[in-house]
Predict the 3D structure of the following.
Amino acid sequence: MKKVLIVSYYFPPAGGPGVQRWLKFVKYLPDFDIQPIVYVPENPSYPIVDRELTAEISDKVVIIKRRIWEPYGLASFFSKSKTKKISSGIIPTAQKQSLFEKLSLWIRGNFFIPDARVFWVKPSVKYLRKYIVENGIDTLITTGPPHSLHLIGLHLKSQLPLRWIADFRDPWITIGYHNQLKLTAASKRKHEILELKVLQSADEILVTSSSTRLQFLTKTTKPITVITNGYDDEQVERQIVDNKFSLAHIGSLLSERNPVFFWQCLAELVREVPDFKDYLQLKLIGTVSDDVLQTINSYDLTAFVDLVGYVSHREALIQQRKAQILLLIEINSKNTISIIPGKLFEYMAAGRPILAIGPKGSDFAEIIKKTNTGEFFDYAQKEDLKKSILNLFGLFKEGQLRVNAVGVEQFSRKKLTENLSQIIKGTHR
């Protein structure tokens, strides 16, 4: 059985979307005659914890751990709640940032490049160099963010005869929050240099979207393969769908992920359609920024909100199957066109209609269209979105709100792992 070493920061008991990709890959890799060895921090500062996920770790995976030092521990001494929000990507708008938040972002952006886990690089390289030699490992995978983990691969590649695969779950310098880090010109340049070194030194690059692949092709000649996120064939019992006209968003709603025109549509429908307010329910499942909640309140929609908060992954799957409509919302920025939210594939597997909002030209819009799993609207399509919600409401009242999906099977985690196994073995085309 071929051994592969996977360096990851997020792994159970970490919660949230960042953990799912490699938790599922290592679950299925042994089915393709590959032994996964996962290297993770022993004492990480996870902003979200889901201990139920530890039960999903395959007993066939070898896990090795080493301690990590992270500056978030020092920052939380002054403000634990604000530090936790920043580390999880919940960044207030510039106008609403406190002095502490502004200072924290400036320090985070300019002192810890590429990110606050950079202090794990040097001790990890020293430890893994010895481990790789002693255990006869010839293939290394690093997955980011945090993108500092790719620096572990960069150093090990320069010291050992390794085949190195760099997996980008999100882009590096065009990731959604990058522009909020108050980077100096020198810091921006450092990020660009490090990204370029990784892209040009790795033997193979994995990305989750076609747009990221095209972006990286301008910077490297190394092979780049798209392996999207996906869904697992979870054993979740059949659910009774909500009696209310529930529009559910599962996951974090950041300050910039705040579709004002969507709230406007709902507010107008509440006023214009006699019975709409009797059935409307907004289910927000996950971390929601104060900016989003304040905007919702400004449109007199708070009475319709069910603020569930963070739930376990299993409970999230149950909630997906209960909702009448599943909301998928992405930041309105050219930098997020390439982002394909991991929950999209679980949404598709849930079998409920998806109502998606994002920047024009978003990669995930094409996936939704091809699989016939919902509708997509960009931020300039307010009237079209409003008509769609009204149409969905009509189908809801008739008991006809359903999905006739096609081709969703290609996004199953096991099928995607088969594609990954071919890359690891070097047998892919």
